């Protein structure tokens, strides 16, 4: 690889500040000081198969994800775009990345000219609408920038973004009649429009809002669009019927803006968005994106990505490994996304408007996924954001009475199982983050675990959720036990002895689901009765005792007490032989198994999150070479540089965070222990930039595809024999050296 200059430590710290101000010229790193790491990012990775990643222009953790929208053809279009497609209905300002449910796709703009209909049309009958086709050869994709040629209209569209604004550059053929359609009907996936508004304020400013229902039950987004050329005329449509005037409120609202024949054919559009008001959207635009120098904003977006990616300086003799690593790191920074205006206002879970400039409020919290690797990774690579991830969740607790489960644009979706915000809060607290009120945070985790909803009343009463009380009871109970064990750690640290004992006990509730008779986690009908018939391979999506998995996959879901699970299974030897069996076992999952169960090695399913810690269990039980074999296989086979290079849903950064950590050589198995368990580094060297100008370097000497086993380790020059390194040791700065070997 090319030599990287690494004078970037300070730039990373100031990136958080720039969320409010747009930029901080005095402290900005110059282009020269920043390494070009975006060259290793391939945004196509994960846009094929079931990856569901976002493709388009955005900045790290930004509110705007501006990108192309296909005509949705099913589950694989959850991000609005799938690599297999070639239909284009416009460029929307919000997108999810990697989810298994579709939503967003708000404020869709499409440049058109000549003959077209206001209807969207279909791939089969494009002439009945405005839909166009594109070709990957005529796309340019890179962090912070997207471009595509649209042959049907002879337009080249380029996109870039700031945190809260999208910037469109439409080059029409000179002299043709240029139009921009605005479609507030179409969203993605479960989205449906409820009410929208548009008003042409003057010939270069259009304001409005779009309210929708769907996965986010009550989503409200406001916008302000400014144009570089005057609008000659506007036609507003209610459900494809023309309406007179410059303003309209309708459920199915669209507009056709006519810019006339332009000598230079160029129309630039800047769109500010806000969860609060169109006035705020306009203010976001005026403060964050005041000029018309499109190329300068593209360069600034690239600079922001390089600044954030520079948290790790990675080295590898294999260029594909660098592409996989930096693309994975890029994918972990699409969300959580900012959900707050430049003036500090945001919409709470209770729909009220709050103004608070003391923290950055975020949304898109896919916690059942991201508590496992993404949030532990953030504590190491993005510590400057961790306090506000916690502050955001504590505010949500204050507004909805419990911590977020799966939060989206001010809405609790209650998606997935567990209350997995808990480990994230506790992990931050135990790692020494001080930028949030610890008492309030404890109140939030405790109250969340002491509610009665979603089966928690059974946990309080019996310690387990009876199998007939709900679906997915084993998955729920195991997730609750993980979070409860984390609460115990926080209570202990705070000197709350009674709470500590209570939650430590609840952290052991996984034992209720372990059936010694079959040696698996199993639905427990009552104190004396198990779910029958029992088949550890069978999986029935949303209709059995597990969640997107089978008993084989869930039997290992005790990261909070691996030794306890070992003991339950009859000791270390038996545990290890069961693990061996797990990684080769084959059986029929049945025809109703979840689509999420992908990336199989035996019954291990890397495509879905409950498996993510399992390969590291060997290392914890004194068999590190088996962990090495597995994590190398997973990194080689389930992460590639092709569009189908992710083996399952990206899940808002979780799949990529697994790779980022594993490629550096470790993974945090217990979600709040701060212990990063060793695997086998794909990178030859990784230098992590830490606060205060410190660095921590991981070196793998003699590393190769064959030399994948760790023969010996030193930490700061001293022999090191533990199977993990602590967060505290990493954050002190220093050097961890692995001597790699091919011999087991
Ligand atoms: Ca929506
Ligand atoms: Ca998943
Ligand atoms: Ca996944």
From TrEMBL:
GO biological process per UniProt: carbohydrate metabolic process; glycoprotein catabolic process
All copies of domain Glycosyl hydrolase family 92 N-terminal, residue ranges: 40-274
InterPro entries: 6-hairpin_glycosidase_sf, GH-type_carb-bd, GH92_a_mannosidase_put, GH92_N, Glyco_hydro_92, PNGase
Gene Ontology cellular-component annotations: cytosol
Transmembrane segments: none
GO molecular function, one term: carbohydrate binding
Superkingdom of the source species: Bacteria
Cofactor(s) the protein needs: Ca(2+)
UniProt enzyme class: hydrolase
Alphabetized UniProt keyword annotations: Calcium, Glycosidase, Hydrolase
Alphabetized Gene3D superfamilies for the sequence: 2.70.98.10, alpha-1,2-mannosidase (1.20.1050.60), alpha-1,2-mannosidases domains (1.20.1610.10), GH92 mannosidase domain (3.30.2080.10)
Record has Hydrolase as a keyword: yes
Domain Glycosyl hydrolase family: 280-741
One Pfam family named in its UniProt record: Glyco_hydro_92N
Listed EC numbers: 3.2.1.-
Subunit structure: Monomer.
Entries under PANTHER family matching the protein: PEPTIDE N-GLYCANASE PNGASE -RELATED, SECRETED PROTEIN
Record protein name field: GH92 family glycosyl hydrolase
Lineage: Bacteria, Pseudomonadati, Bacteroidota, Bacteroidia, Marinilabiliales
């Amino acid at each position: 690889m090319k030599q990287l200059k690494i004078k970037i430590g300070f730039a990373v710290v100031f990136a958080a500040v720039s969320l409010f101000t747009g930029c901080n010229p005095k402290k900005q790193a110059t282009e020269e000081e920043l390494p070009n790491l975006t060259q290793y990012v391939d945004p196509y990775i994960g846009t094929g198969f079931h990856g569901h990643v976002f493709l388009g222009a955005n900045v790290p953790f930004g509110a705007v994800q501006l990108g192309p929208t296909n005509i949705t053809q099913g589950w694989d279009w959850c991000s609005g775009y799938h690599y297999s497609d070639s239909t284009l209905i416009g460029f929307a300002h919000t997108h999810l990345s990697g989810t298994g449910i579709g939503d967003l796709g708000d404020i869709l703009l499409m440049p058109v000219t000549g003959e077209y209909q206001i209807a969207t049309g279909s791939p089969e009958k494009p002439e009945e609408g405005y839909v166009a086709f594109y070709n990957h050869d005529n796309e340019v994709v890179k962090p912070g920038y997207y471009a595509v040629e649209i042959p049907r209209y002879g337009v080249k569209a380029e996109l870039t973004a700031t945190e809260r604004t999208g910037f469109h550059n439409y080059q029409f053929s000179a002299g043709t009649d240029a139009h921009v359609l605005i479609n507030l009907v179409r969203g993605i996936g479960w989205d449906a429009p409820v009410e929208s508004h548009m008003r042409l304020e003057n010939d270069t400013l259009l304001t409005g809002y779009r309210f929708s229902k769907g996965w986010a039950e009550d989503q409200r987004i406001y916008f302000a669009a400014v144009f570089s050329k005057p609008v000659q005329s506007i036609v507003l449509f209610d459900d494809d019927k023309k309406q007179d005037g410059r303003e309209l409120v309708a459920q199915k609202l669209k507009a056709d803006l006519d810019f006339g024949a332009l000598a230079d054919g160029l129309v630039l559009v800047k769109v500010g968005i806000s969860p609060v008001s169109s006035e705020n959207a306009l203010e976001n635009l005026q403060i964050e994106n005041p000029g018309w120098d499109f190329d300068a904003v593209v360069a600034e977006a690239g600079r922001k990505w390089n600044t954030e990616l520079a948290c790790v300086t990675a080295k590898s003799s294999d260029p594909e490994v660098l592409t996989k690593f930096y693309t994975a790191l890029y994918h972990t920074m699409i969300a959580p996304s900012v959900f707050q205006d430049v003036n500090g206002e945001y919409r709470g879970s209770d729909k009220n408007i709050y103004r608070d400039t003391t923290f950055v409020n975020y949304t898109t919290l896919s916690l059942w996924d991201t508590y496992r690797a993404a949030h532990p990774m953030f504590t190491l690579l993005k510590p400057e954001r961790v306090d506000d991830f916690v502050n955001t969740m504590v505010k949500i607790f204050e507004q909805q009475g419990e911590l977020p489960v799966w939060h989206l644009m001010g809405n609790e979706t209650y998606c997935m199982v567990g209350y997995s915000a808990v480990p994230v809060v506790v992990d931050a607290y135990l790692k020494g983050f001080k930028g949030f009120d610890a008492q309030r945070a404890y109140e939030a985790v405790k109250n969340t675990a002491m509610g009665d909803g979603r089966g928690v009343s059974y946990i309080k009463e019996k310690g387990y959720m009876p199998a007939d009380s709900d679906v997915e009871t084993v998955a729920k109970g195991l997730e609750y036990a993980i979070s409860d064990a984390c609460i115990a750690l926080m209570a202990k640290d705070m000197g709350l002895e009674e709470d500590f004992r209570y939650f430590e006990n609840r952290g052991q509730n996984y034992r209720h689901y372990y059936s010694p008779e079959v040696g698996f986690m199993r639905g427990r009908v009552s104190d004396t009765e198990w779910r029958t018939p029992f088949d550890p391979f069978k999986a029935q999506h949303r209709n059995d005792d597990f969640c997107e998995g089978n008993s084989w996959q869930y039997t290992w879901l005790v990261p909070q007490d691996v030794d306890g699970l070992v003991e339950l299974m009859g000791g270390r030897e038996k545990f290890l032989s069961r693990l061996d069996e797990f990684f080769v076992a084959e059986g029929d999952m049945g025809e109703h198994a979840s689509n999420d169960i992908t990336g199989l090695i035996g019954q291990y399913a890397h495509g879905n999150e409950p498996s993510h810690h399992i390969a590291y269990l060997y290392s914890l039980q004194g068999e590190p070479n088996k962990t090495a074999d597995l994590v190398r296989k997973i990194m080689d086979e389930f992460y590639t540089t092709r569009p189908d290079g992710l083996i399952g849903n990206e899940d808002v950064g979780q799949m990529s965070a697994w790779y980022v950590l594993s490629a550096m050589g470790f993974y945090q198995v217990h979600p709040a222990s701060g212990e990063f368990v060793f695997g086998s580094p794909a990178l030859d060297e990784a230098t992590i930039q830490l606060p205060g100008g410190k660095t921590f370097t991981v070196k793998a000497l003699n590393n190769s595809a064959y030399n994948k086993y760790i023969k010996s380790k030193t930490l700061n020059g001293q022999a090191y024999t533990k199977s993990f390194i602590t967060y505290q040791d990493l954050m002190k700065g220093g050097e961890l050296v692995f001597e790699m070997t091919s011999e087991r």
